[in-house]
Amino acid sequence: MIYLDYNASAPIALEVLNTVIEVMSSQMGNADSRTHEYGANSMAIVQSARKSVAGMFAVDPQQVIFTSGATESNNMVIQGLKDYGKQTNKKHIIISSVEHKSVLESAKALSKYGFEVETVYPDDSGRVKAEDLLERVRPDTLLVGLMHVNNETGIIQPVDQIGKFLKKRGVLFLVDATQSAGKLIDEIQKLDYDFLSFSAHKFQGPQGIGGLIINSDVRLTPLMYGGHQERGYRPGTVPVALCAGLGKACSLALENHLKNQNQLKELKTTVLKVIEDSKVKYSINGDPDYCVDSMINISFDDVSSEALMVLLKGICAVSNGSACTSNEYSLSYVLKSMGLPENQIEEALRISWGPDTDENELKKAVADICQIVLGFQ
Length: 377
Ligand code: PMP
Hints:
Layout: E1 2-3, H1 14-26, H2 37-57, E2 64-67, H3 70-80, H4 82-88, E3 92-96, H5 101-110, E4 116-120, H6 130-134, E5 141-147, H7 159-169, E6 172-176, H8 185-190, E7 195-199, E8 210-214, H9 240-278, E9 282-284, E10 295-300, H10 305-311, E11 316-317, H11 333-337, H12 342-346, E12 348-352, H13 359-376
Parallel strand pairs: 1-11, 3-4, 3-5, 5-6, 6-7
Antiparallel strand pairs: 2-8, 7-8, 9-10, 10-12
Helix pairs in contact: 1-9, 2-9, 3-5, 9-13
This protein binds 4'-deoxy-4'-aminopyridoxal-5'-phosphate.
């Protein structure tokens, strides 16, 4: 059985796990306790982790806010701009239809307070056209929210072009980099944005921690009250061991990303070759030229992905949508909004891997999938 659902959550790297265990078992102090050295030690660990995170994103450590993950970070920005939007009378928000629910639903929640949420749709390439989005920018546009890489299709959105334009126009830009953080490191470092969200567990860090990079003077209203931690943006005791784990995941990602990228590319070439050689009938969802190397979203002709996944139990763990929605199966809203035919959406399977995935095991799993598919075709 091979795990091929890295987009939902990647296995924690051994070095990260060891860091978490070591810190959790030896550092009992609250990082904000100033009356003893246990507190000071914990604070030193948190600040060192903050530096590692900042290093990976090429920002100042001050700009890093630890959160529980991208869902919280996205909410922090969107909900946190409510007061600022009201004060400045900027109540227009632009997002794409393929955003994660933590952006879609958070933006929808603001519409109850008089905010207008405009949605931009991709075409069947899965990519939103930059011009399409930018022509909607108005003087009262408060925020544009666009993900860097889509979690279901792996499609890279034109956040570079959009960020440059929005910076000139002085419009706030939230980039959800949950699927690119720790992977497209050079690309992220060059982006223009005001807020960038990510989760550690997507790049072999621990679950339950992530962050928000703040690159703006606009003060977000915090979602919670009760402490001054994380500059007041995110009150509550900082999880020292998780911060250390995230820091480790970031330094490993920074150190290894070129090697990792080559490895991911090689794995993708292998996957596509096995599929091609098997003679199954299929289509790849989303424009392959803009897809990351760590996944494919594929529809096998005439094979429902739900049925296929039942047969794949014990062979490999894959998915047919985002984990957040796959327990109550409905057709993927991402693929739907790309305008794909219903049968193709029903057939869509997401296979995602990481740099530590064993090539031979991957090859075998994909060959097994194709074998089962051939039985249907
Ligand atoms: N944004 C994207 C693009 C994601 O893929 C995910 C996780 N599926 C999230 C946000 C939310 O991340 P988390 O569940 O770790 O908060």
